[in-house]
Amino acid sequence: MTPRPIQLALIDMNLFPFFPKLTAKEVSCKTQATGSNLAIGKNEWTDALSIERRNFPQFFITAAAPCPYLAGRLERKVFTHLVGQDARSLNTQLSRGGFRRSQNIAYRPACDGCHACVSVRVPVNEFELTKSFRRILARNADLTARAVRAKANGEHYGIFRDYIDARHGDGGMAEMSVLDFASMIDETFVDSHLVEYRFRPLEGEQGELAGTVLVDMLDDGLSLIYSFYDPAFDKRSLGTFIILDNIVRAQKMGMKYLYLGYWVNGSPKMEYKARFLPQERLTPDGWAVFRR
């Protein structure tokens, strides 16, 4: 996929309330053409990190492009690179400020005149199971979950390809090759893993793969990066089941939150995230709790 052009810009520091002592003058913005999905190789930038970069990340902004969630609108993203030894802590800090990760990039919407994309996270110890959620858990009781290394293989890609073709054939990921997919899973400096969901196997055999999710470990929770599943099992509501399972996993790990990414009011693709309550949504005044 061809990378979008990157424009030099002065980043509005109101986007970064978690760096309150820094001013816009302290942000260094430089242009750098990168590979697909704005990704760079691990070694390419590590050796070139300056003292300035180690003290404060450099932010970039993309050119305007059609919004994938709301028709007739344009999107722009502000982003930085997650590289080096501070990648995990920076990933946590940026996640608290509404950023998401894609490979070795942390990004956040920075659209002119639009604030529809709202970061949401579930305080897992306060989460309320509804009757509908209980039915979904019972429907998938024959699945086992196992955390494995974040390393893509042909089985993962086969499920991913079927999922994209069935659910998001007109989206930006429709053209992803097996190499693009491997980069999405493998290329990262942060603490990340896959959780595989398989049917209970017969003795001595590995159960059939039903779905997978890529998960980041943050200091205060788990962050769901991307999930995909076999569309043949649509009636199981596997997307919802994966979220419910990771709420339980975060609870067992003593974590506070499960980060779900962006809820976009008015977007059918993102409506489902509003169902997981109570949840916290990032507002201009910080994280605010929303209940039933």
Tally of DSSP helical segments: 7
Structural class: alpha+beta
Count of discrete structural domains: 2
For the biggest β-sheet, the strand order reads 9-10-11-12-13-8-14-15
From the spread of the alpha carbons, the general shape counts as: globular
CATH classification, class level of the largest domain: Alpha Beta
CATH arch. level architecture of the largest domain: 3-Layer(aba) Sandwich
Average pLDDT: 84
CATH fold name of the largest domain = Aminopeptidase
Question: Helix and strand succession?
Answer: EHHEEEEHEEEHEHHEEEHEEE
Rounded to the nearest angstrom, the radius of gyration is 19 Å
How many strand segments?
Answer: 15
Helix content: 10-25%
Distance between the termini: 41 Å
Task: Give unreliable regions as ranges.
Answer: 1-42, 44-53
The major β-sheet equals: 8 strands, mixed
| Estimated share of beta-strand residues | 25-35%
